[in-house]
Amino acid sequence: MIRNFDLVIIGGGILGTSISYFLSFLNKTKQIALIEQAHNVAFHTSGRNTGKVHAPYLYNPEKKKVFAKTAFHGYEMWDEYSKLKSLPFKKDGVIEVSLDEKGTKVLEKYLKWGKQNGLQDNDIKLMDKNELKKIEPEIKCESALYVYKDGSTDYSKFTNAVMNDSRNNGINFLLDTKVTNIKRVYDKWEITLNNDYSIFSNFIINAAGGEAIDIAHKIDVAETFTDVHFRGEYWKVPSEYNNLTQTSVYSVPEYPDYPFLDPHWIIRIDGSCEIGPNAVPVFSPYGYTKTENIKEFIPKMMEMLRSGARKAIFDKQFQELAINEIQSSMSKSVMINRVKRFLPKIDANKITEKGTAGIRSSVINEKGQFVPDVILEGDSMSFHILNYNSPGATGALPFSAHIVNYLNKQGMFQSENSDAQCGPWKFSSIIEKLSL
Ligand SMILES: Cc1cc2nc3c(=O)[nH]c(=O)nc-3n(C[C@H](O)[C@H](O)[C@H](O)COP(=O)(O)OP(=O)(O)OC[C@H]3O[C@@H](n4cnc5c(N)ncnc54)[C@H](O)[C@@H]3O)c2cc1C
After folding, report:
1. What is the pLDDT of residue 251?
2. 323-365 pLDDT, tens digit each
3. Which of 6, 203, 303, 326 is placed for a possible disulfide with 30 were both Cys, Cβ 3.0 to 4.6 Å?
């Protein structure tokens, strides 16, 4: 087995895997490995999300510039990649509804943001309730933003296809392998795997999703930040509701300052329907079960009380929101009622099966505020991608190209080539289009 690497990526979610993809085309002789603790790539958040390829209408073009730009180009890139690899991708749109006048003002803002972020007149349209009723008679609302350029997919399949391409180009994927320690030894990293043996690397990219902050802290990076984990739960809806609407339906979020939305009515790529996700505070990036949360409760609480998260957890609005979300986890009807407000036909008694929950880890700064955009921290030997949240799956390809280009430009990790054909895309043309 190879023990010395030029570069190691920690994390086989859609982000780490997409970064490996571009590196694999730009580096033909360097030794690069991706380390993933699970048996498959996309086992955690990347394979447990809503599966939407989002048009960038929800993102403030100033505060969430990177997410907005990468979502815009990510949509086109996944569309192209899905055709090339025969992967599921459907341009099925999404409807965002407002239930009162205040919500309509928010939709007007989303329309403006969408256009500022590159959407065309025929991609997005604001409608009053009567206009929407003609298309979607079951939806009850005040007004609606119809976003035609929104899509559905299965990100797990996308990530696996990207892994296969990277692997064929020479990237080593070490699956079932957990990074349990990292230590600097002179000009290299000694990376302990599965508490058992070590490998060495000149450079590390930390794309560890919900564990990215913990890994950064291990090597004294991003120490002023901490994170809070939220479990997004889903309910599967019986097939008799599959034709209730033609399109997935989101509602204007009640708490826009927090980094998640209210539960949606989701039409999955296979045509089945689900309700979700909520956002229940949990104590681990893998807090799917009670056992894991009990195990991590004390260490996580201690960490939060020592950091800026203390201010967030004592904030009255945050507490209100957390109680709301916990109630919608404990009671199925509380959760379903949040969607019933705009789809009154749904009967909670008919819904009995839970979907697959996914966990989002949101970064909090030392002032106790949620950080809205992705955080990039690095030095001559490591690079850390923190707070890579929604619509992270949509933007993963262009965002990864941007990271690889950034590392090259800064001389942090110099690829053998600065440009190459990467599957269907020329690397330089992705970077040019993004102009980040
Ligand atoms: C409920 C929910 C719904 C969402 N819906 C959408 C959507 O519809 N559209 C969209 O675009 N985005 C959506 N998102 C956001 C999107 O899923 C994420 O932004 C994206 O998946 C993040 O990818 P990642 O690779 O950074 O993280 P992850 O998928 O979490 O990958 C990180 C990987 O690192 C591995 N890892 C961590 N620590 C170690 C270690 N020590 N050793 C080895 N491996 C390690 C983990 O096992 C994991 O596989 C949603 C997110 C959530 C939570």
Report:
1. 96
2. 888 998 999 999 999 999 999 999 999 999 999 999 999 999 9
3. 6
The structural domains of the chain, with segments of one domain joined by +, span 1-87+150-225+371-436
- The span from the CA of 386 to the CA of 209, in Å, is 7
Q: Is 209 left (phi over 0), alpha (psi -120 to 50) or beta?
A: left
CATH number for the segment(s) 1-87+150-225+371-436:
3.50.50.60
Distance 142 CA to ligand 1 centre (A): 34
In 195-252, where do the E strands start and end?
197-206, 226-232, 235-237, 248-251
Amino acid at 326: I
Q: Each residue of 358-391: pLDDT tens digit?
A: 999 999 999 999 998 899 999 999 999 999 999 9
**Dist. CA 20–CA 11, nearest whole Å:** 10
Q: Which is nearest to 303 in space by CA: 279, 286, 284?
A: 284
**Pocket perturbation via mutation, ligand 1, pick of 34, 36, 45 by most ligand atoms within 8 A of CB:** 45
Q: Is the pTM of this model over 0.85?
A: yes
